[in-house]
Amino acid sequence: MIYDVIVVGSGFSAIAVTCNLIEQLPASATVAVVGDDPGFGRGTAYRTELYLHRLNVPAGRMSLMPHQPDDFVDWLKNRGRRLQAGDFASRSDYGLYVRDTLAQLLRKRDGRCRVDFIRAKAAGCVERYNSTLAFHLGNGDEIAGRNVVLCLGVGNANLPIDPAGVSLSVRSRIVENPWRLSWLRRVASSDTVCILGSGLTMIDQVLALRAHGYRGRIDVLSRRGLAPLGHAKTSPAPLPIDVEALPGTISGILKSLREKSRAVDDWRSVMDGLRPQTHVLWRRLSSKERARFLRHALPWWNIHRHRVAPDVFDRFDQLVSEGTVRFHAGFLKSLEAEEGRLVAGYRVRATRDLAAIKADWLINCTGMERAGISHSPLLKEMSRSQLIAADPLGLGIQVDAASEVIGSSRISPVRLFAVGALTAGQFWEITAVPDIRVQARAVVEEIVAQRPAAEA
Question: Domain 2-155+370-449, CATH 3.50.50.60 — does that match?
């Protein structure tokens, strides 16, 4: 079948695009949503049921539709959640809200477009009849579309070292995907735990361990030993920042931002003032400066930019203060088994010294892999056909300012877009809900605007 729009993916980006398509396309239009994740739209982050796993953006900025800013807060109130716009809701509630929003749109039978949800993996893509892109599906079917939106996210990053050399009995205590929370039930209260990575995922898993009764020591190993900072209990007003007036180098930008931070009561006002214009600043940077940012400044950007809810930070900070959570800065060099325990050998940061952490459990919290072609068989196939091209810095695929994919071999009139993490090379800050929802709506408006008048 030939659809007007095919949405490839099953995470938040896909559901945001789908909801906007339902809102904006006429009843004559057809949409196919292709993905093999049974938890469509909720993804890894919003599937957790632990109440301590919170959003790191206030509820007032998390509505699915940017033109309905109070929608999520109203949803919370209607379900008896006593939260205000500045509070931080649970990720589980947000997943339910996203599901309910889609379901409500789908219940409108009259006057809405046809939407087919196809639970299958898209395995290949070719141009058909000089007017569509056709996708070969894992179930053996084939569908084609006049417009395509790639909403492929990223998965949990692999361990930095292959654990194949560790004996099977000990390897069962290496948790490569911490979001499969069944492993928590196997951890004894007297065990010791080593966590690789010190970002938001690490904090989530530390709190999950504590909620499941674990009271042992937790050693955290990351390259720089940095952990996310917390939101202020009362958010300061954002400081207006003219990004066009900032220097063109990373060192110059950092110097300017430090000066601004020293001149205000709370450095968060500087970050929040920069936040809406990050994509503008990113586009001003040369490829050389972007690479320099990724090499040297990214960890510090992450801990200041991607902050945690104030009460969650207080819980975690208390564990650090009392010595329950200990940080180690270094580069993992080896994984071995010794007397039934895991030994993580690492080189201490800024030295040639070697050290080791012995633990009963090793938890991979190195975060999400960077979006790119290599993690997806479909994207690999599309790259070989030159339908897409990799971003030079490995930040997804090349798109233009309208999120339309740049591919050298496409000759058909079909339009191919990408939404979410795959477009980080163009927009940088495009993995959080406030950014993705705006991008999703803009892409759908572009698709609707280009429909022939007879079809609109």
Answer: yes
